[in-house]
Amino acid sequence: MKKKIEDKLYTLKYKTDEAGHLTPDLSKCLQCQEKTCTIICPANVYCYNETEKKLTVSYEKCLECGACRIACEHIDWKYPKSGKGVIFKKS
Length: 91
Hints:
Layout: H1 5-9, E1 12-15, E2 22-24, H2 26-31, H3 36-40, E3 46-49, E4 54-57, H4 67-71, E5 75-77, E6 85-88
Antiparallel strand pairs: 1-6, 2-5, 3-4
């Protein structure tokens, strides 16, 4: 049986840093029509609230796949500090 992405995400372990490693340019986010970061991220790290005109970044769920930095040039993406971030383990 093929696993869903949600099932695979539960096989991950995270060591959250105090500071986020994903820093979008929020002024550019307001101008962005596509909101590609909210679509392309497999872990749903980015969520845009249209009513509040606010982008929420849940960096602690980041898989460090780099999809968002390829899709959006307005995200400053760095690897988390040593020992922090996602830890892949067998499912």
